[in-house]
Structure formats: C-alpha cells, structure tokens
Amino acid sequence: MISTILIYIGLVLMLVSTFLGLIEKRFLKKLHYISASDVSGSVLVMLGIALDGFEVGKIALAIIFLSIWNPVITHIISKTYIKRLER
C-alpha cells in the first residue's frame, strides 16, 4: 500500500514538473522545474519499487547514481546555456 502511494506521488511530481516546464518561457526556470521534480519523483518511484520487494541493493545504487548525476548534468547544461548567451 505504501509503495503504491510513493509511486503515484513520484509520478504526479514528474507530471507537474513537465507541465510547468512546458508553460514556462524562460529556459533556466524550465530547467529548474524539470530537474528538481524529476529527481525527487524518480527517487520516490524507485523507493516504491524497492518496497514492493525488488532488489533493494540495485535500486539503492540507482538512487545514489541518479541523485548525484542529475544535478551535475543540470548544472552543466545551465552553465553552457549562460556561456552561450555571453557570446
């Protein structure tokens, strides 16, 4: 029951962030909406899957990998965008 709730909350977070990203006009705000909610939504979905009885070790590794690399990639994209605007 708790796992299903976590999965649904994660999916709703990802859908809301996608919608906000679509209606926002500024690129950096779009990037912020999508990246922040995408990480938390994905982590909630993976936690829900882990509670359902799948391999917890592999899911924990995926959560760690996602939590580190998604903000790093978002930072690289935003820095590249800002440097391109400075030209």
The assigned structural class equals: mainly alpha
Sheet-strand content, in percent, reads under 5%
Task: Please tally the helical runs, counting DSSP H or I stretches of 4 or more residues.
Answer: 3
- Radius of gyration from CA coordinates: 15 Å
Largest sheet: none
How helical, in percent, are the residues?
over 70%
Low-confidence stretches: none
Number of domains: 1
What does this structure look like?
The protein has 3 helices and no strands. The mean pLDDT is 89. It has 87 residues and is mainly alpha-helical. It is elongated, with a radius of gyration of 15 Å. α1 (2-23) packs antiparallel against α2 and α2 (27-51) runs antiparallel to α3 (56-86). The chain starts with a helix and ends with a helix. It has one domain (2-86). The chain has helices spanning 2-23, 27-51, 56-86.
Structure keywords:
single chain; 87 residues; mainly alpha; 0% strand
Brief sketch in words of this structure:
This protein has 87 residues and is an all-alpha fold.
